[in-house]
Amino acid sequence: MYSPVAFFAFNRPYHTEKTLKSLIENKISINTELIAFIDGARNNTEIHLLDSVEKIIKSYSSNFKKLTINRSEKNLSTATTQRINISNVLSKHENIIVLEDDVCVSKYFLEYMNKALEKYKDIKKVWHINGYNYPIKSNSYQDAFFTRSMQIWGWATWKDRWFEFKDDPLSNDPFYLISKFSKKDIREFNLDLKHDINWSQVIANADGKLPHTLDICWEAYIFMKKGLCLGPKVSLTRNIGHDGSGSICSADKQFQKARINNYKINSFPKEISEDPESLKDIQIYINKKYSLLNKIINRFKIIYSNLKKIFF
Fold first, then answer.
1. Residue 4 CB contacts under 8 Å (≥ 6 apart), including other chains
2. How far is 248 from 218, CA to CA, in rounded Å?
3. Which of 42, 139, 173, 275 has its CA 20 to 30 A from that of 182?
4. How far, in Å, CA of 61 to CA of 304, rounded?
5. What pLDDT, in 10s, does the model give residues 80-99?
6. Sequence-distant (≥ 6) Cβ neighbours of residue 224 within 8 angstroms
7. What average pLDDT does the chain have?
8. Where are the beta strands (DSSP E) in the chain?
9. Residue 218 above 50 pLDDT?
């Protein structure tokens, strides 16, 4: 029995097409139920885009065991539509694979997700299956590993974990969350990094500077429960939404060119604990990405790109 895929789309026909094309490269897509959710238009000028998205999704009906399309009459926002509809899917299924319209996947993505969901379903310490991983340099002999690092570019979880989160007041109140984290918790939640990659998002949610983001609340809850996330050594997904087209993500060519793993995941970790070497690889990558030198280089790249547009 294969897990259903909850597919969240909005106003980007091109990205929707690219993502679904990659998904049907998975052999077991024909045995998989796809449940699509299209958020409502924010204004009348977006309606034709949503019509196009719906038409594209319908064109893939023969590629899945079953295809259902749910289109909202009003705009709910990404976090709200995901929170509501992940719960709706999990009220009928034991697990779920979540995919957004700007995440292309490996041809072994579905196989990996289904294997992991089955393998760790009764191990309550495992909360989340990552499809994405940073482009780290790893010497690990295993194809996948456990860390506290949660990624949302193609992910999966189980009914019991999700509803524990959904029904807990902690998941709905960033201020309550802030009151529960010690300085040590904050440091570890930030993966013991020099750069604040997570906690600042919690603060921004509480202050209203960011729209309520589901992913940071889910990640914080998993952390509070001392849960683990399984991730592939080489990413099985690539985010194509960092081209300036999204409502949240800005343009970033690095993500557009990221390598994707087109090999099967054969070896899963037997020990249910965080892999310190894999965590260290992630820390090295992120610290380098946010280093002062890298920021200066990226700034000059932007300036050079803008000058080229003017003079060439």
1. 32, 33, 34, 35, 89, 93, 96, 97
2. 18
3. 275
4. 45
5. 999 999 999 999 999 999 99
6. 170, 180
7. 88
8. 5-9, 33-38, 66-71, 95-100, 103-105, 126-130, 144-147, 155-158, 228-232, 237-239
9. yes
